[in-house]
């Protein structure tokens, strides 16, 4: 087997780990409704749709279109459309992408004009039956910083707003080269700045939708979770949110340095036939040329930095906005101290390993892959995660990828956060989603996730989307979905997952002494010392080693 194939055996964990691999829903569009309502924003009025227990205002611009000379520029405020009323009854385009997510999760339409958000509000706001402002949940979808969209019926916040009387906002941001190109002329991090621009929009407009700008919970999964880790360590974002929920962040992978980001931007420029220093040539590219060039550039693997090679468009450490790797800043106590929920699912890496290796992986191939990735630490890893001679080692690779990239860094990071925030009585809560869904909701292209708990499995439950997607849950599974929704929304509303809506078991705050994690099963339970021996072992090696 060639080295680049070995490379893929472990590295492919990364290809998708910032991708929201959610279920292959066959959605029936619920957003067909004749009843409408009009609310204000600082830019003009918006007309949305009213349902039995919530209202939806879709496709509201939070920034000017990043098109023409505004491509690869920081976002700016949208122009006012007053005195006209904006039609906010339909989702707007997702950002340009070559989407390979499961069916039902890719945007139907894409465009560079994609900086839109969606707002879901309780019916009480429309009916003027409440005078108090309600907490806000702002959601950043995943997708490897190259795919995904807020314009998905997976992320309709109907259960959330109706159960907790909260406001839910889902947010688009620029992806791939259009979101993160770094050259002498273009400073990069545009997708990250888009997220912050949306948070500014919430600060300025939440009140018009019944939302409290002083109670914003920032929630994200996968790439969205990596974004949140970056926001809590970027001082320019401090104060724009007040709680966070971080779902399945691959903490180990980190962000790009400027040097590496420029290397991959140079590969992109070469792929599209432009000089790295020729801004006019880059700006003249069509969207299709950008996407094709992005795809071509990613085929050029740098064996010295393999993980970065598979994630060319993450945010970049610029020393000003993004100061350092989030994990480094958290360890140093340089982060925004807010109540947090942080967690993972139990088989995060399985989908990526089985996508990379269609056939069995031998013990020799496994050991070669470890050497390529971990260098002198390979024996250390091999001792704890030994291959099985004569057997398929994809399950071993899956366990290693899950523990090293996701689960143990969650615990490691939480230990630092818990110790630092304890003096200010600011809580952190840990979880792991472990339930194997009985129904096959992955579709024909992801058979290896059937009967497993792959990356993104929890989203079906958090958003209570099964019925909308035609996924038959058992009574116990439906109750788990209600429980998770209640925990999440209790935290959004009260900063404590146990206060508010009914929950089956007390979720303890995380601390290094008890090391307690909420396990989401049917029913949920609390476990102390989740993967303690494995994580103690990996903590000793550290999480900044793999290339």
Automatic annotation (TrEMBL):
Recorded hits in PROSITE patterns, A to Z, give: CARBOXYLESTERASE_B_1, CARBOXYLESTERASE_B_2, PROKAR_LIPOPROTEIN
- Enumerate the Pfam families for this protein: COesterase
Q: Which residues form a coiled coil?
A: none
* GO MF entries: hydrolase activity
From which domain of life does this come?
Answer: Eukaryota
Q: Name the UniProt key words of this record, in alphabetical order.
A: Hydrolase, Signal
**This protein's record includes keyword Ubl conjugation:** no
The catalytic activity of this protein is classed by the Enzyme Commission as: 3.1.1.-
Query: SUPFAM superfamilies annotated for this entry?
Result: alpha/beta-Hydrolases
Which residue range or ranges hold the Carboxylesterase type B domain? 37-537
User: What InterPro entries is this protein classified in?
Assistant: AB_hydrolase_fold, CarbesteraseB, Carboxylesterase_B_AS, Carboxylesterase_B_CS
Biological processes, Gene Ontology terms: cell motility
Q: Main EC class of this protein?
A: hydrolase
The region annotated as signal peptide is: 1-24
**Protein family (similarity comment):** Belongs to the type-B carboxylesterase/lipase family.
**What protein am I looking at?**
Carboxylic ester hydrolase
Q: Which organism is it from?
A: Cavenderia fasciculata (Slime mold)
Q: What is the lineage of its organism?
A: Eukaryota, Amoebozoa, Evosea, Eumycetozoa, Dictyostelia
């Amino acid at each position: 087997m060639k080295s680049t194939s070995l490379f893929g055996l472990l590295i492919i964990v990364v290809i998708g780990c910032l991708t929201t691999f959610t279920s292959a829903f066959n959605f029936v569009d619920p957003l067909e409704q004749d009843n409408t309502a009009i609310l204000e924003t600082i830019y003009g009025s918006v007309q949305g749709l009213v349902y039995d227990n919530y209202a939806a205002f879709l496709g509201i611009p939070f920034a000017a279109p990043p098109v023409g000379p505004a491509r690869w520029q920081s976002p700016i405020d949208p122009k006012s459309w007053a005195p006209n009323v904006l039609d906010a009854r339909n989702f707007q385009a997702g950002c340009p992408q070559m989407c390979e997510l499961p069916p039902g999760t890719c945007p139907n339409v894409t465009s560079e004009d994609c900086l839109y958000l969606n707002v879901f509000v309780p019916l009480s706001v429309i009916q003027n039956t409440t005078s108090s402002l309600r907490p806000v949940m702002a959601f950043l979808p995943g997708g490897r910083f190259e795919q995904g969209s807020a314009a998905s019926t997976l992320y309709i916040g109907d259960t959330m707003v109706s159960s907790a009387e909260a406001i839910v906002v889902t947010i688009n941001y620029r992806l791939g080269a259009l979101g993160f190109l770094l050259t002498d002329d273009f400073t990069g991090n545009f997708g990250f700045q888009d997220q912050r621009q949306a948070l500014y929009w919430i600060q300025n407009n939440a009140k018009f939708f019944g939302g409290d700008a002083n109670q914003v919970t920032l929630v994200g999964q996968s790439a969205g979770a990596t974004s949140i880790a970056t926001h809590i360590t970027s001082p320019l974002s401090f104060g724009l949110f007040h709680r966070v929920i971080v779902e399945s962040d691959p903490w180990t992978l980190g962000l790009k340095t400027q040097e590496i980001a420029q290397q991959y931007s140079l590969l992109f420029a070469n792929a599209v036939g432009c000089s790295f220093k020729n801004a006019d040539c880059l700006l003249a590219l069509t969207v299709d040329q950008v996407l094709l060039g992005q795809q071509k550039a990613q085929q050029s693997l740098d064996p010295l930095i393999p993980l970065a090679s598979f994630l060319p468009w993450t945010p970049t450490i610029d020393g000003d906005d993004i100061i350092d790797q989030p994990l480094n800043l958290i360890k140093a106590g340089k982060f925004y101290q807010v109540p947090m929920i942080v967690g993972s699912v139990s088989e995060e890496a399985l989908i990526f390993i089985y996508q990379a290796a269609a056939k069995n992986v031998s013990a020799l191939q496994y050991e070669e892959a470890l050497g390529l990735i971990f260098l002198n630490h390979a024996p250390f890893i091999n001792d704890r995660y030994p291959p099985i001679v004569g057997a398929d080692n994809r399950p071993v690779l899956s366990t290693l990828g899950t523990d090293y990239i996701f689960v143990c860094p969650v615990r490691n990071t939480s230990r630092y956060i818990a110790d630092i925030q304890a003096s200010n009585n600011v809580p952190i809560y840990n979880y792991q989603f472990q339930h194997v869904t009985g129904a096959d909701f992955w579709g024909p292209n992801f058979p290896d996730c059937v009967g497993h708990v792959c990356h993104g499995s929890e989203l079906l439950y958090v958003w209570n989307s099964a019925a909308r997607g035609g996924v038959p849950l058992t009574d116990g599974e439906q109750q788990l979905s209600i429980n998770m929704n209640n925990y999440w929304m209790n935290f959004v509303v009260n900063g404590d997952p146990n206060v508010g809506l009914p929950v089956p078991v007390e979720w303890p705050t995380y601390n290094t002494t008890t090391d307690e994690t909420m396990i989401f099963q049917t029913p949920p339970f609390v476990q102390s010392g989740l993967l303690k021996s494995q994580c103690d072992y990996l903590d000793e090696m550290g999480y900044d080693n793999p290339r």
